[in-house]
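Translate sequence into structure tokens.
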Amino acid sequence: MAEVKVFYDQECQTLTVWFADSGQEYVCEETGDEVVQMKNVAGHVIGFEKLNFSVPKPDLLRIAFETSPA
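Result follows.
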């Protein structure tokens, strides 16, 4: 089963999402709109970080995922 990890850092105002093990990170690339993609050595995106992300009530932050057939 695949695992997605989501981290919200209220102090730094970042939302980080990993689709794979963060230890596989090889390079980061800013894409614009304050989004940074983390890629593995093969160039596949394994995560992203949204900069300047904040919510008024972080204890009420909800995250939902939806899958689609491959």
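Note: Residues 13 and 53 are 5 Å apart (CA to CA).
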